[in-house]
Amino acid sequence: MTFKEQILEGIPNKLPEFKPFDNSINHAPKRKAILSIEEVKLALKNALRYFKKAHHAKLLSEFKTELETYGRIYMYRFRPDYKMYARPISEYPAQSKQAAAIMLMIQNNLDYAVAQHPHELITYGGNGGVFSNWAQYRLTMKYLAEMNDEQTLVMYSGHPMGLFPSHKEAPRVVVTNGMMIPNYSKPDDWEKFNALGVTQYGQMTAGSYMYIGPQGIVHGTTITVLNGFRKIKKEPKGNLFVTSGLGGMSGAQPKAGNIAGCITVCAEVNPKITQVRLDQGWIDEKITDLNELVIRVNKAKAEKETVSIAYLGNIVEVWEKFDSANIHIDLGSDQTSLHNPWAGGYYPVDTSFEESNTMMANNPELFKTKVQESLRRHADTINKHTAKGTYFFDYGNAFLLEASRAGADIMAKNGIDFKYPSYVQDIMGPMCFDYGFGPFRWVCASGKPEDLAKTDKIACDVLEEIKQNSPKEIQQQMADNIQWIKGAQDNKLVVGSQARILYADAEGRMKIAEAFNQAIAKGEIDTVILGRDHHDVSGTDSPYRETSNIYDGSRFTADMAIHNVIGDSFRGATWVSIHNGGGVGWGEVINGGFGMVLDGSKEASKRLKQMLFWDVNNGISRRSWARNDEAIFAIKRAMEVEPNLKVTLPNIVDDNLLNSI
């Protein structure tokens, strides 16, 4: 069967040939057994409802084996035979161009070069799934192929509920992931309900079909590292950034360090993913011996090199070795997947990678004990370095949160706050998000590198024009992003789809998008898909990351993210998504995203202006109400530009008055 025929077939009437487990692919770790005997039966019953009754007897034993072996029912037999990648939009069988664009983005998220565990439909973060099983994938792609522009596909945590009548201006797809009743958002709840096949963890951009490979986090990390060195008043050149994690998102760190111009040491315990990053050119060197690492770092410091070094081993060993060897670390952080600490997100020191994988499935309580012991040791050695002048920040991966839960010496004297700031509190919040700058991205649906090059130039021209009249408060942001987009081609950032990201405010996003739409109308480029990371101004309510610099007591509320998605949906988004979890963990964050297709039409021009303005200024208004000075500045500026915008501003209370009571 051809690619198009397989898409249109959906779930096949005739069972495909059984597919043996492919050991050449990076696979998800086995999930712990958490279901009772009755719940196992329910999980099997839930899985079998996708298939005709005639197949149930054969599939029952197969799915039971998968559940026992891997902790989940992935339905490997139904994995498609065709290559998984973002094809040019014209190659998808679809009645709706918008639907074809979504099909393209789904396949990009599952591309072997992009996805962390492609056969388990996991894009990044250890558990960030596009779908829970291959039946969901097949059925969703069939629905998208059949959809017209007066239908909306409803997605319940990976399950396509179906096509419903709507209208042309409605979103083509509405996605929810992991939206639990609040009392059922503990880590074990995810394990249980995911194993039952009734919910999934969509991460931030996996379950919303907007992941573009490591490029997105490369840019965010580059901005973070540059501003981190500015904060400590040092040049990146010849100075040291130490971190860990080379997986889906965290793998971008060494590349970002190279772009920023510093020395980066990034530890990783997984030999397979370390080699992938070396082969991809995301790291320059791999070292397996700590003594050799010390020699190499001292040489890089002496010669003021820009170099990225992966240490194949545990990050705790690196911090401890650098302490005893008196190697000064300028910037320190961590990007292991500590939102998922008990299922492969963080590996304990003094336990091998293989032993850890076995232990987390077969003896989860001992594994948890070892992880928490390691976190305490990790925090202790960080404390030794910060006493010598290292600037350490939590990079939003829940490191400080999980370390505190482990009893590590990580709390401030007041017993409420952490010793160290979130990178949003010190860097990204006041320098970027409060001004409205966040990760705007686009994908060239033609798949042509020349289209991406043209959009890079368009975006650069727009930003340079805006910068001429920008206020001094955002000049640095404008300059950083102009520099980034000029070097984007040289840095070979494309993995998977022909995509690009930069940080822009509402003005920049709208003007760049409108310039793209005009270029499409003139036939200079093909269709463009807009989106953003949820890690943005408005899309995410996350008290330990995106909204950690909200100090009015509302950082544990999620009104902003919910309003963001509702507002995007009726202002013209092609698809919208809202997730429980993502970045810092299940039950710790609510985040929302969108996708928007530009086709050169007047309708697309209208939609982009309506939606992008709201998508940014919703968050700025919330941040300004929290009394963030930069956000007050930004929302006042937005109201001057748009007379229909009228936002409630805070009256500032004199602290001396409060101190008098």
Q: Would you mind describing this structure in some detail?
A:
- With 661 residues, the chain is α/β, with parallel strands linked by helices.
- It has helices at 3-9, 37-48, 56-70, 97-110, 134-146, 187-195, 215-231, 253-260, 271-280, 290-302, 315-324, 353-362, 364-387, 399-405, 423-431, 449-467, 475-487, 506-521, 559-571, 602-625, 629-641, 655-659, and strands at residues 122-124, 128-129, 151-156, 159-165, 173-177, 240-244, 263-268, 285-287, 307-312, 331-332, 391-392, 438-444, 499-504, 528-532, 540-541, 575-580, 590-598.
- Strands 3, 4, 5, 12, 13, 14, 15, 16 and 17 form a 9-stranded mixed beta sheet that branches.
Provide the descriptors you would attach to this structure in a database record.
6-stranded parallel β-sheet; alpha/beta; 9-stranded mixed β-sheet; 661 residues
What can be said about this structure in brief?
By secondary structure, the chain is an alpha/beta fold. Helix content is 43%, strand content 12%.
Question: What distance separates the N and C termini?
Answer: 78 Å
- What fraction of residues sit in β-strands? 5-15%
Q: Rg from C-alpha positions?
A: 24 Å
| Strand-pairing-aware structural class | alpha/beta
Shape: globular
Helix content: 40-55%
**Count of helices?**
22
**Averaged pLDDT, please?**
94
The main β sheet shows up as:
9 strands, mixed
**Counted beta strands:** 17
The low-confidence runs, each spanning 5 or more residues with pLDDT under 50, are none
